[in-house]
Each structure stands twice: as structure tokens, then as C-alpha cells.
Amino acid sequence: MLDRFIARFGTEKIAVLHSKLSIGERHDEWQKIKEGKAKILIGARSAIFAPMKELGIIIIDEEHDSSYKSETTPKYNAKEVAEKIAKENKCPLLLGSATPDLITYSKCQIDRDNNLKSNLVNTNNFQKDIPKLLKLTKRANLSKLPEVEIIDLKQELANGNRTMISLELYKNIEENLKNKRQTILFLNRRGYSTFIMCRNCGYTAKCKNCNISLTYHSYEKKLKCHYCGYEEKLMTTCPECHSDKIRYFGTGTQKLEQEIHKQFPRSNYY
Ligand SMILES: [Zn+2]
Ligand SMILES: [Zn+2]
Q1: What residue spans in the chain does CATH classification 3.40.50.300 cover?
Q2: Nearest to 63 by CA among 36, 29, 6, 102
Q3: In angstroms, what is the span from residue 232 Cα to ligand 2's centroid?
Q4: If DSSP states are collapsed to H, E and C, what string results for 53-95?
Q5: Which ligand number lies closest to the CA of residue 237?
Q6: CATH class name, domain 2-128
Q7: Ligand 2 centre from 206 Cα, in Å?
Q8: Residue 188 CA, ligand 1 centroid: distance in Å
Q9: pLDDT tens string 60-69
Q10: Per-residue pLDDT tens for 216-261?
Q11: What's the CA-to-centroid distance between 200 and ligand 2, angstroms?
Q12: Please, are residues 245 and 199 in contact by the beta-carbon 8 Å criterion?
């Protein structure tokens, strides 16, 4: 971000504030801002408190990000502080996001509803505390979105593919391997199986402390709670009905890893 701004406006006009600066560097930047030499300030959360003069606009990018809220004392939400500062300076506050915070988004919906009711569009909303929804309908530089394909695994199963890798995915990984290219597989579950259930009585293995499903970790052969770290030994019989119908469901990264190893035995993976 800094490089882009420097390339466009030069070093002199730009100040930077973030936690990695030394006290000396921070002092220099602060002074640059205070004396009005810096026309543009780029900074992380606490930069909102910088003594900018003649504020023209405040831009908070990726406004949905929870890091704008400070959890350490003094607790504050940079977005709320920005709203107040913008109001005092009578300047607009621009909140940017492709996936807006629901609170921000709903406030804009109120604006839309009000406009529908009064049948007039108010272009000076920033002075009245009501956020206005501005939509970007085209991507920057008109760049193309990556191609996305959704594969129905139920259909794969119906076609006789019982693995977790669809035929399309298999072909693509195969092609990448052939062309010496890499593949990243994302899966938002750690462990091997994400829940353990008795097919006889419906018992599910849960954490004693948190009441959430335990995850099976195949390396340690243990059931683990991902919240509190509670562990249990692997079970083969049901602790409730003592049947041996205990089954492991769901897919974690370890299971996927095993599957990849099976289907692409000569490739390297991490
Ligand atoms: Zn049971
Ligand atoms: Zn737990």
C-alpha cells in the first residue's frame, strides 16, 4: 500500500503509523503529521488518533475486519472513532469492503428504505450520520474474476465415485503434476474425522467441558476437543449401549492427506 502511494504522491507527503515503528520513528511521523507536512497518512488501527489537520476524507479499507476493534485497554472501535472524527471535521468517512460488516450493511439498508419512503436521494448523507451504499459494479482495471466451478459431490457419488476427490479435481491435480505445477487444497477442518457417532443408539462423542463434537486425530489415535484441548482415547465400542457400531464421519485435513497420498502416490505434499 505504502509503495503504491509513494510512487504516486512521493515520500514527503506521506506519513505512516503502525506498531512495528520504533519510538523515534513514531515521533518523526507524528511530527510530520502535526506540522501539516504529511498530507496522507497510512496506518493501522491506532492511526485514527493521529493529529491530522484539515481532514478531507477518512478511508477504512476492509472495514469488516475485526482487528479495527481494540481488545486491549483502552478498548475502542476505530470505526466508531472515525465516525466521530469525520463528523467533527465535516468530512466523509468511506468504509470499503467486498464483504461488509453486517452492522454497516444494515445501516445502509436503513438509508435505502428512508430514501424509498421520501422518494428522494440525499447526496449529503455523510453529514447526517446515515451511511450511503456505494456499489463498485466493475473490478479495478476490469480484471477478470478467477474461474470458479462448483462440483456436486452427491452427483459424483451417484456416478460411482466414492472418494472425496471429484473427477474434475482429480484431472486438474493430475494435470498440474504433469506440468510441474502446484495445487493447494483448502479444508476448514483439522483432524481425521469431524464427528463420531454410534449407529445403534445415536450417541455422539462430545467434549465434557464444551459439549461440542470431538475430532478424531489419526496420528495420535485420540479424540480431541478443538476448543479446550480435552482428549480421549479412541473408542471402538459405544459407551452408552456397548455396541460396536461406532462410526467416524466427516472429513478433516488428515483424512484428505491420506486420500491424496493414495490417489497420487508419487507426488510430494505437505
Ligand atoms: Zn450406542
Ligand atoms: Zn472442550
Answers
A1: 2-128
A2: 102
A3: 11
A4: CCCCCEEECCCCCHHHEECCCCCEEHHHHHHHHHHHHCCCEEE
A5: 1
A6: alpha beta
A7: 8
A8: 28
A9: 999 999 999 9
A10: 998 889 999 999 999 999 988 999 999 999 999 888 999 899 899 9
A11: 25
A12: yes
